[in-house]
Structure prediction request, 220 residues.
Amino acid sequence: MTTEKEVLARLKDAVLSYDSEAAAEAAKEAVSLKIDPVKAIEEGLAKGLREIGDKFEKGELYLPHLIMGADAMEAAIHVLEGHMSKESLESTSRGTVVIGTVEGDIHDLGLRIVGSMLRANGFKVHDLGFNTKTLDFIQKAKDVNADIIAVSSLMTTTMPFMKDLIEALDAAGLRGKYSVMIGGGPVTEKWAKEIGASAYGRDATEAVRVAKEIMAKKRK
Ligand code: B12
Prediction:
């Protein structure tokens, strides 16, 4: 009989070996063993992706590894999400995040990793992908009653769209309703302060920590 521990290890190993098929299979097994999906993500998949992320930061692994790891994790999350009841999604959700890369910018790898890590930590994430128009961020945030709008930019030329978003929220009287968290290669804490963003995250781990802080403040 397969144990929970074995399935969690298989989930982690599938991400570490960039194997989407094995990840989806292990996720199906997690479902049949009735393993809590959040546990499967946190103690299985996310552990694998964190290991890859650590090695990437040390220069031991490269970009394609991150992409393939994120792909495997997403394949498994897709299976797990399909089996999470509405109630369990609601009760495990730490908050709702709308995430996207700004208009004119097609870089989405960092965004996907941030999205996966937020999901892995119990957030409900609506991914708008790359090249997202300012008004689409706002419309989606309204539609899903978001807590946080998370915005990525990888180019100095597209960073100003982050400022546009904050100004558009201000103009619509919605600035107090949504926390705006920003990040991406050229984005800095200084830029976040300058444009009046709620928070900045350097990487996916920090994005999770910051998002949790935002929610803790909000729920006080
Ligand atoms: C991969 C890549 C591409 C791929 C993108 C594939 C994809 N699907 O994303 C391709 C080949 C398509 C590409 C295209 C281009 N690219 Co490019 N690309 C890169 C590269 C090499 C890596 C980016 C990346 O994915 N890093 C890995 C991820 C995991 O890291 P990350 O994105 O930084 O994300 C992490 C953090 O930043 C943070 N984070 C990211 N988003 C968010 C959001 C929030 C809310 C938070 C909290 C945190 C957070 O967490 C993430 C995970 O830890 C960078 C160079 C570099 N070293 O950054 C250039 C780079 C970003 N590209 C650049 C350029 C110029 C281009 C092109 C214009 C090239 C061209 N002349 O055609 C086009 C862009 C077209 C467009 N309109 O967008 C420049 C930008 C320069 C600038 N102006 O600032 C860079 C810096 C290269 C360079 N040194 O010149 N690119």
